[in-house]
Amino acid sequence: MPGRHRRPLEERATYREVFAVGEFRALWLASALSYAGDQLAQVALAVLVFRMTDSPLLTALTYALTYIPPVVGGPLLAGLADLFPRRSVMVVCDLLRTGLVTLMALRADDLVTLCVLVFLTVLLGAPFTAARAALLPDILDGDKYVAGSAINNITHQATQMLGFLAGGALVMAVGTERALAIDAATFGVSAVILLVGVRRRGGADRSGDERVSLWRNTRAGARLVFGDPTLRSLVAFAWLCSFYVIPEGLAAPYAATFDDSPVTVGLLMSAMPTGMVLGAFVFSRFVRPSNRLRSMGWMAMLACAPLIGSGLQPPLWAVVALWALSGVGSAYQLAANAAFVAAVPPSGRGQAFGLAQSGILAGQGLGILLGGFAAEVLGPEAVVALAGVAGLSVATMLTLSWTQIRGDVISSMVTTEPVEERVPA
Questions:
Q1: In contact, 221 and 348? CB cutoff 8 Å
Q2: Which domains does the chain possess?
Q3: What are the residue boundaries of the Major facilitator superfamily (MFS) profile domain, all occurrences included (predicted)?
Q4: CA neighbor of 195 nearest in space, from 15, 21, 29
Q5: Within a 10 A sphere around the Cβ of 174, how many other Cβ atoms?
Q6: 112, 117, 123, 124: CA torsion to nearest 10
Q7: How far is CA 268 from its chain centroid?
């Protein structure tokens, strides 16, 4: 006789199941190319500016320009992902960035022009990232989304790890201008892959409201995110990275305390991404969804605590190990991201993701900028240690508040669904 078996949604999706989805493969490949080019460009910019100015402050300022633009226009432009077809938003952004980065390669000797072009290029990343984040739940559902997010994070961190390591050697081999030209090419190829591999979907359903503007959409997204205690807490965890990103922004002056090699700069920049690759893999493949949420606070504290050891001025291998351990802890972002998706309605997904991502980038940029100012006086080792202390303090407070609400979040995410199954009579 027929019966009903209840299957827990705690079941974890495999990476093979995710890669079986053709649209995800296209989205992943396009993102991987852009990621790789970006890491190469960041090494080129760090080396170029530090050699031009010999100033940790100006180096950090230029690096911070890869994060600060969202303060100005990120939340506003992210709303484009809810007003227009998301694939189209991504393709247009890729094409515009191809042109801007090409100009960067041609004007690499002009610091002011270079900074303006960096600003505009990163500004276009806000609607691109919001559209991609909003599109992914349409392509993958359930724990496939979590596994897909993990794959994207692992890919991002792996390309950072390899891009920073190989980037230092490549910059030495081909020069900063050609390295920037390679970055421009990755954006162009990404646009082609998106056009061919991702099907066109309409914009988000606005329930017949044809007059929604970017400004109104931005205000609605802010009310959605900050008006809900759970979303506020999850966004605060996401923005915690403003503290543990500071070492990356100081990698060039930090490397100068050992030697003046671009390879050392790339080695330091790759340490955290290496740890994140390991942490994201273990966290997504071997930890149940409910346990990810329960351990999120402790992982967030782990993302900050190892940086304190930099204040002891350890040798290079120990600095790399400490920064890699910080990267392992940062894998908590997977759990925060999945919970955020579950709590946001699809019609406002682009704006909500864009607001969260813009805050992440803005906080990182401001953190790096402040770190550059402080490094002029205290030195990079002390500043990294202070970033660890401040981040650990904030992470501890967030963990205490998260403990009070995580039970409701877990019960809303980890439910059961009825599945028809024939059992023996």
A1: yes
A2: 16-201+225-413 (1.20.1250.20)
A3: 228-425
A4: 29
A5: 14
A6: 180
A7: 18
pTM: 0.68
- Please provide the DSSP assignment of 100-166 as one string: HHHHHHHTTT-HHHHHHHHHHHHHHHHHHHHHHHHHHHHH--THHHHHHHHHHHHHHHHHHHHHHHH
What is the pLDDT of the chain when averaged over all its residues? Answer: 80
Contact 304, 285 (CB under 8 A): no
> DSSP class of residue 419?
E
Spell out the residues 6+ positions from residue 203 whose beta carbon is closer than 8 angstroms to its own: 82, 83, 84, 85, 86
HEC secondary structure over 241-287: HHHHCHHHHCHHHHHCCCCCCHHHHHHHHHHHHHHHHHHHHHHHHHC
* Distance in angstroms (rounded) separating the CA atoms of residues 405 and 55: 45
Other beta carbons less than 10 A from residue 68's beta carbon: 23
51, two tokens: 């050699």
Which amino acid makes up residue 243?
A: F
**393: confidence class by pLDDT, cuts 50, 70, 90:** very high
